[in-house]
Automatic annotation (TrEMBL):
The gene coding this protein: Sgsm1_0
Organism of this sequence: Polypterus senegalus (Senegal bichir)
Protein name, entry field: SGSM1 protein
InterPro entries named in the record: Rab-GAP_TBC_sf
Amino acid sequence: MASAVIVIVFSIELVYDDVFSVWETIWAAKHVSSSHFVLFIALAMVELYRDIILENNMDFTDIIKFFNEMAEHHNTKQILKLARDLVYKVQTLIENK
């Protein structure tokens, strides 16, 4: 259920054409790498804007406002690549316990 909510949020945040790429990636990742890939996309978005968030000392409300202002201006390919990299890092950490 939480995944459905996050997918809806991505639909608001991303350019319409990119929404399909994200949905397809989430669906494929469920079968290939992680059933929680949607969370890695959210983490990738925070990671991508981490420096801006920290430099501006944003609180939760500021971060929500920032993401609202960034709607449809995200680099979806970069976000998906970063999400895949984060999945790989976590899987590598788990395998190398």
